Amino acid sequence: MALDFSQIIPALPGLADGMLLTLKLLVMAVLGGVVLGTLLALARLSDNVLLSRLAKWYVNYFRSIPLLLVISWFYLVVPMVLSWITGDLTPVGAFTSCLVAFVMFEAAYFSEIVRAGIQSISRGQINAAYALGMSYGQAMRLVILPQAFRKMMPLLLQQSIILFQDTSLVYAVGLMDFLNTARSKGDVVGLPHEFLLFAGAVYFVISFGASQWVKRLQKRFAV
Amino acid sequence: MNYHWDWGIFFKSTGVGSEIYLNWFVSGLGWTIAVALAGWIIALALGSVLGVMRTLPGKLLPTIATTYVELFRNVPLLVQLFIWYFLVPDLLPTPLEMWFKQGISPATSAYLSVVVCLGLFTAARVCEQVRTGIQALPRGQNNAALAMGFSTAQTYRFVLLPQAFRIIIPPLTSEFLNIFKNSSVASLIGLMELLAQTKQTAEFSANIFEAFTLATLIYFVLNMSLMGFMAWVEKRVRIPGMMGGSK
Questions:
Q1: Would A3 be classed as within a structural domain?
Q2: Which DSSP string do the residues of A112-137 spell out, in sequence order?
Q3: How many angstroms separate the CA atoms of B214 and B25, rounded?
Q4: Which of A19, A41, A149, B166 lies 20 to 30 Å from B234 when distance is taken between CA atoms?
Q5: Chain A residue nearest residue B183, CA to CA
Q6: Neighbour tally for B234: CB within 10 Å
Q7: What is the pLDDT of residues B134-164, one digit of tens each?
């Protein structure tokens, strides 16, 4: 089997569009996931038993099912739920339903990282904040979370790299991300193998490069 | 929008033969377990060898193992699956290629691809756990074994590995659970495992919520049972007086 990579060059603009969608999904999912994950972690650590238990269930639930199941489910369910809420049929694209799936799924993983981060901050910090007359919100926002996020940055980035690879699962609902674009372009020109290998190489270079960078960061952040 | 709730759907006929929807779920679960267990055997065997290689003295063997880990950890699972399912068969010698494409049923060829894919993918993760386990042991263990005249192979066989494997049971458990969850990618190459059967039920019956709720429940119970099983294993093999073994 002879490989012919020459056809990839004319396909590059299309592939770049696919990568753009992958990165857009990644950035939005990470931001949404970290915000929701932080709220979950705060709920988990709160003194309110009900809130804490709900957060625990949420995390356990999403961590015991496959991401692909969530993506497939939300693809069918999100438009339906939205139409119940708004009353009329609003067609949402695959992108929105995938984004919701990623945010909700990844929030469970991010929340565990954030929780560990918050717990690693010594209790004296929050006591000191209270002693200065800060409210719970102020103590968290101004004292605890800034320190916790600094500590857990490498882990959050590592999780984001995993998420970057996992975005390829949107293939299941036909979203034209980088992998899916490469597959379809490869099929069109009749060179599926070359395009698949190229896609794999690109994912590798980005993930590997990013994780080496995170490793360096980790060393620099180490106290 | 009208949604017709019907929790009895699982006992209704699928319209295909004399099957009810529940039969689909049972058969799907069977495939999921078959994929995960076979993949796990490969992952555990290969991952252990690679993990040991990473801790060996010298340059060549650790480098090979490190390269393997980086390669399999930084390429998305789905890309790896497509490579095993679409690309690798074309690289095989012709008789083997014909056998893979025509000699066996589509379900079998998909099964073989996904087992190899998940096995090799998970091996990279198992390798890292095994390496961590070995490196977590005090250096004195290795030195004492060598001082007693053990060869390197004997040191690993009788001293390092029996301890390392006990330490890493918790992280290995999570990899073991992951391989069950990851086996759902098999649905994308047409293997009718649990997720694929769920999607099919959702499409046939239009009872999306019920179908996915049952699938979620099955994955959840599967997870819990596996965790319970691994906790039991951990307790069984615990060395009294070591690492929380006094309990």
A1: no
A2: HHHHHHHHTS-HHHHHHHHHTT--HH
A3: 9
A4: A41
A5: A66
A6: 15
A7: 999 999 999 999 999 999 999 999 999 999 9
* Residues of chain B with confidence (pLDDT) below 50: 245-247
Among left, alpha and beta (phi > 0; psi -120 to 50; other), residue A65 is beta
Which CATH number fits the domain that encloses residue A152? 1.10.3720.10
Please give the share of chain A, as a percent, with pLDDT higher than 90: 80
ipTM over 0.85: yes
> Is A43 among the domain residues?
yes
Q: Which of B1, B219, B222 is the best residue to mutate to test the A interface, defined by the most A CB atoms within 10 Å of its own CB?
A: B1
Q: What is the pLDDT of residue B246?
A: 42
Domain that holds residue A157: 10-221
pTM for the model? 0.91
For tokens 């992280």, the residue is: B171
Top-tier CATH class for B7-237? mainly alpha
Residue A133: inside a domain, yes or no?
A: yes
Look at residues A138, A141, A144, A139 and name the one whose alpha carbon lies nearest to residue A118: A144
- Taking CB atoms and an 8 Å cutoff, what residues of chain A touch B87? 193, 196-197
* CB within 8 Å: A168 and B79: yes
- Residue B76: list chain A partners with CB under 8 A: 165-166, 168, 179, 200, 203
pLDDT at residue B17, rounded to an integer? 75
* One-letter amino acid for residue A209 of the chain: G
